[in-house]
Amino acid sequence: MKLILTGGFLGSGKTTAIQQACNLLLKQNIKVAVVTNDQGDELVDSKFLQGFSIPVKEVTKGCFCCNYTVLLENIGYFIKEIHPQIVFAESVGSCTDLVATIANPLAEMHPELTVTISVFVDSYLLWTIINGTSSFIDDSVRYIFKKQMEEADVLILNKTDLLNEQQSKEVQMFMQDEYAGKKIVLQNSLNPEDIQRWLSCLEKPELTKRKSLELDYEIYGEGEAKLAWLDASVRVANKKISALNASALLSQKIYEKIKAKGYTIGHLKFLINDGTEQFKISYTETSKNENYFFNSASVKASVLINARVQTTPKALQEIVYKAIDEVALQTNSTIQIQSISAFQPGFPKPTHRISS
Ligand SMILES: Nc1nc2c(ncn2[C@@H]2O[C@H](COP(=O)(O)OP(=O)(O)O)[C@@H](O)[C@H]2O)c(=O)[nH]1
Ligand SMILES: [Mg+2]
Question: In what order do the strands lie in the sheet containing 334-343?
Answer without folding.
Answer: 278-283, 264-273, 300-310, 228-237, 334-343
